[in-house]
Amino acid sequence: MVYRVEVMLKKSLRDAFGEKIRKRINEDIHLPVRSVRTIKVFTIDAEIASTLVEESAGQLFCDSISQEYSIDRPLADDFDWLIEVGFRPGVTDNEGKTARESLELAIGRKLNRGEGVYTSTQYALTGNLSLKDVERIATDLLANTLIQSFRVKDRSEWDKTPGMPPLVPRVITDTRPTVEEIDLAVSDERLLAISRERVLALNLAEMKVIRDYITSPEALAHRRSLGLSEKITDVELECLAQTWSEHCKHKIFNGRIHYTDETGDTRIINSLFDTYIKDSTRLIREAKGENDFCLSVFRDNAGVIKFNDEWSLAFKVETHNSPSALDPYGGALTGIVGVNRDPFGTGKGAKLIFNTDVFCFAPPDYDKPLPPRLLHPKRIFEGVREGVEHGGNKSGIPTVNGCLVFDERYLGKPLVFCGTGGIMPAVVCGGPSHIKKAEPEDFIVMTGGRIGKDGIHGATFSSEELHEGSPATAVQIGDPITQKKMTDFLLVARDLCLYRSITDNGAGGLSSSVGEMAQDCGGFELQLEKAPLKYAGLNPWEIFLSEAQERMTLAVPPDNKDAFLALAEKMGVEATVLGRFNDNGKFLVTYEEKTAACLDMEFVHNGLPQMEMVAVWTPPKHHEPDIPKVEDLTSTLETMLGRLNICSKEYVVRQYDHEVQGGGVIKPLSGRNGDGPSDAAVIRPVLSSFEGMVVANGICPRYSDIDTYHMMACAIDEAIRNAIASGGNLRHLAGLDNFCWCDPIQSEKTPDGRYKLAQLVRANQALYDYTTAYGVPCISGKDSMKNDYIVENTKISIPPTVLFSVLGKIDDVRRVQTMDAKAPGDLVYVVGLTKPELGASEYFARHGYIGNNVPVVDAAAAKAGYERLTVAICKGLVASCHDCSDGGLGVALAETAFAGGLGMKIDLAAVPGEDIERDDFLLFSESQSRFVVTVHPDKEEAFSAALQGTTLARIGQVTEEPILICIGLKGDVVLSASIARLKEAWQRPLRW
Amino acid sequence: MVKKVRSIVISGNGTNCEMEMAHACRLAGADEVDIVHISDLIYGVKRLDDYHFLNLPGGFLDGDDLGAAQAGANRFRYATVRGSGERLLEQLLRFINDGKLVFGVCNGFQLMVKLGLLPGFEGRYTEREVTLTYNDSGRFEDRWTYLRVNSHSPCVLTKGVDHFYLPVRHGEGKFITRDASVLERLHAEGLVVLQYTQAGGDEPTMEYPWNPNGSTDAVAGICDPTGRLFGLMPHPEAYLHYTNHPRWTREKLPEEGQGLILFKNAVNFIRKHL
């Protein structure tokens, strides 16, 4: 039986969701919709007596105070057009799942296989619209046709036949699951065709290595003994493709690069990762000696550092770019709940304590024609924002900070960086919590969600550019509550010592999680038919590769198996034994007692040939801008404050829970009215202690247009400087590098690959130079190398982008400081030297230029200044401290003033500068390592003494009168504006 | 007088403020504070009868998928204790009839009104009379709010306080009643405990963002006629120390956060009366 239960808000109540949709139709699609009301539809497809549905539906699905409902009778009336949007078969439907569970309680039984509850949403529109308009509303706003379908009815049609007929998106499949064999003894062209047709993203050399391995006499003899042949199975081939994907193996970072610099010198770099990232961390740790706080770097799902003797911290940042391009909501939601599983699956498992998110989008007011398959940047913005909102808020993890970066080149692929930190007791079950190891005989247990076709080929897909054939199955929707239940359960299991090792199922699914965990013991045997499925009809390779979310894989010792499974059942979490670990060196997978894959562990993990690449650095030369001087910089400052990369992001911040878990100390918004932009987040992860931690980010992709070396240096400096401004300490600060690049391999479609690879080399060189200079070791990182869009003749590549994130310990959170000016009469200082470094600045960009003088970080000077500033803040000598970044000193002064609700009088001639003769350059240069600091007059002397040796000057005073006044280099007033006006300019652009 | 004040915080299925709520109970002087996963109640490992102070923390029960705490209320209503077969709701009603305290914050408040625990006119604790629905803004919002306390309310937890400053973090906090008579009765019996006001104000406000969700009569929290059952949308457990205050670097504040007093009042009441 199929029943349709419709639920809607009572007419007397405002439909806020409907109004939000109306506003977006009016503003974004420019169609004259007068009103929108929404109706939620539950389609019940189950053998249940109608009386039982009638008795329970109201109580289960409807709030009798605010809503009304109907069964098999349409509720909608008074509309011109009706659109109903539902999920396509097999797409995660979280509300449907919850509705199903409620229904099961009411009817006293579980639904049978094939039965289900599905949700859809009706939008009842009024307004003078054509069918074409309505379809546009459906496709451009309400439905993502990759994962959803929609139906439309107009008023007259509705009057003839009212209501929508039930539509059940049941997965129907008559596939009989089989293991296919593929003959690799074929021509080179055919090998490449196989790779392309199956979305394997393997090149010819790799395909040949696989063929040679499979057909080698030793392998073949063993294969035959297990019932396999000289042909490779699809399970084996798919598994190798994902394990060897760029996404999983980081082939570019681990490849051999012939790098030629601008002088013509050529050198060979054997693995960027080893040479620059791992080695800098090794050096820094050695130099720190017994003060080394790193516990686990680069080998687990997240990096781990010491917090104190009792606790350790884990931190990881991931990107989820390609899925977010196709389905921003699902992609971003999966991004955040996916990265949650990284610290959670690190060591023996960490409790999740914060999220930090950075998004790079094309401008939301983009008004040029969109290339095929791309979604409008505002839709991407809103979808990503909401996905991360649902993922973060529902998981009970505070989103403590983040930022938004805008550049038109993110049109082809938005970047969605999601970071998560976790905390774990330093010792778990008598051993260090950051160490885990599966042992032979341990059971392979999968917990959490079930497996469907979602996310198949995610790893190989993200190792390619976005093209016309990009698979829709790469899109998935996360389910934060299923994951929350699982993490609640696993933390209990951890403390009861029920498992030995844990890792998440992300890219590559089981093939990756089990394959990696088995490296500890040396082999495994897995029975694929045991895996719990969302629906029937998955082929064995799909079960093995699926990236269906909310799943962890564990190694459970034989003695604990029953206790582990019983606890899972009690806590409402699905857990299934899929096989066992062993030490016989084989990667063995069976399906219904027949061998589906048998590979040598050694080959799977170490058989991939090293890539050889060429990089050539030719520094670009840009036009040096000639910007007319203006007398009054007031409106210039307003324009700068309103630039997308500078303006307030409060719209996003407020929709993220940034204080759950109760430890917030510096929140994303600070100041008198709670709307100033904080530099970093400070939280207390252990509520009974005043020890805290700081989290900050640095990202400056614009500088890549001049030199990625300095882009990287500035990103590192920005992250560190944000942490320092908020009370962080260089001595206990760890970094995370997250590279997002455009394809750097020279080819027909990438004729400038050598240059892009050289950009990558240079960024790595800077990472080495600056992390070692600051003594801030990288503990983990990630790279995403194919952020290009190629359809027909349009190619869009992102600017080379690195997010550098830092995590640090704060000894006493009561000693940290915020960025807002505190009191009239306080003295205003600028720390650090201002140079004419406007290359790729926001100021030049505003005038349409790039220029050449990119900011150059003087790490030695900066480091000394940071150390002294930390002491000054800790001693309580500083009333406010704000870093100068995009938009330079001018923006930092304005933000400090209006966040504090106070004015300032500033003398620009007092600013320590070098070769600067223009007021606008002084205000908007983006020289690094600078701060605006305010100090109470009583502390002037102590502050100057504490900063002795640092470039520092007193440049003015905080005033009661709420006006920012700047006296220029010639002694005239060059800027005078009420802080209300400045704040308005800063808040207006993204106040949606 | 009881020897030990025992406090329980229920967790699971999407709660997420249990740690800080338990911390608040500890700071308030409760002798025993247990975070108990709902499955322990259903398996009979723990019983509400062994506690005095029931805390229902914020979160997203079952993702709030059918509306805030709606699926959570469904679950609670149908839950029976393994072995004894007792309905969990019976255990809860006995807990209430024993004169004990129930405190719901945010999603916990939503659960209380959806189960009908609040307002609980004449001890009718399973009838829904009021609800919390979607914010007028159509958004989840995290912002601090000013609240005034009804000094005539029987609420045990707010005794001795006239104003609060606490954060809200919700998408469904708009308080509405079944009809005008329910609202009238709530006012008449002093069951409206907290109302949103402007900064430093004393009058309930309908103005956004001071009233962050468009609640009828700016209602932010209500109690039952005994004053022992209390629920509110703002988060007192998010303000236990001055460093939680969004302006702590600008203002001189007492060491102890204002949210703590609610928990202290609860513990003191239990010591005195139970």
Describe the protein in words.
The complex is a heterodimer of chains A (about 1000) and B (about 270). Chain A is of the alpha+beta class and about 1000 residues long. Helices cover about 35% and strands about 25% of the residues of chain A. In chain A, helix 1 (about 15-30) packs across helix 4 (about 130-140) and helix 12 packs parallel to helix 25 (about 755-775). The longest helix of chain A has 22 residues, at about 755-775. Chain A is globular, with a radius of gyration of 29 Å. Chain A starts with a strand and ends in a 5-residue tail after the last helix. With about 270 residues, chain B is of the alpha/beta class. In chain B, helix 1 (about 20-25) links the parallel strand 1 (about 5-10) and strand 2. In chain B, helix 3 (about 70-80) crosses helix 5. The chains are: A alpha+beta (about 1000), B alpha/beta (about 270). At the A-B interface, helix 1, helix 2, helix 3, helix 15 and helix 17 of A face helix 1, helix 3, strand 5 and strand 6 of B.
Short structural summary:
Chain A contains 31 helices and 43 strands.
Query: Which range best describes the helical content of chain A: under 10%, 10-25%, 25-40%, 40-55%, 55-70% or over 70%?
Result: 25-40%
Uncertain spans of chain A? none
In terms of quaternary structure, the protein is heterodimer
Percent in strands of chain A? 25-35%
The helix count of chain A comes to: 31
What is the overall shape of chain B? globular
What is the mean predicted local confidence, pLDDT of chain A?
94
Q: What can be said about the biggest beta sheet of chain B?
A: 9 strands, mixed
Number of strands of chain B: 11
Strand order of the largest sheet of chain B: 2-1-3-4-11-10-9-6-7
Low-confidence stretches of chain B: none
Helical content of chain B stands at 10-25%
Report the radius of gyration of chain B as a whole number of Å: 17 Å
